[in-house]
Design brief:
Helices cover about 20% and strands about 25% of the residues. It is of the alpha+beta class. The protein is globular and about 50 Å long. It starts with 16 loop residues before the first strand and ends with a helix.
């Protein structure tokens, strides 16, 4: 009955990859530090990361969904929890270039706030 009746997506459903942000105004700040670990570990080589010159922010962050197999490796290896896999799975395009998404289209629409538990765990590992 698809597309009229859609099945519910499981909680860990593997959909499109999004970048978490920590600030919206005056300009978006990404949780990503552009370390490139996700790019190096991607088996399909569908992620491209270029770091800004004097800032720990990605200048270029693109994901080619035409190549991505939604394996979650990029999310699992990210030490900063900067990536999140959403439950969005409907994605169409007219050409191959429509599947290449830049960071502006990849960013989450909500600000990521760390819980107290994550903050305490992070402090213990740094100490």
């Amino acid at each position: 009955m698809y597309p009229y009746h859609k099945l519910p997506v499981p909680k860990r459903g593997q959909g499109l990859i999004k970048l978490r942000i920590t600030q919206l105004e005056p300009e978006p700040r990404f949780k990503c530090t552009a370390c490139g670990i996700c790019e190096k570990n991607c088996p399909q080589h569908c992620i491209e990361v270029v770091k800004m010159e004097n800032d720990k922010q990605p200048e270029v962050y693109t994901v080619n969904y035409g190549l991505c197999m939604f394996c979650r490796i990029c999310i699992d290896v990210c030490p900063f929890s900067a990536l999140e896999q959403t439950q969005e799975y409907e994605f169409i395009g007219e050409s191959r270039s429509d599947f290449i998404r830049p960071k502006e289209q990849l960013m989450m629409r909500t600000v990521f706030v760390e819980s107290e538990k994550e903050t305490r765990t992070k402090e213990k590992t740094e100490a």
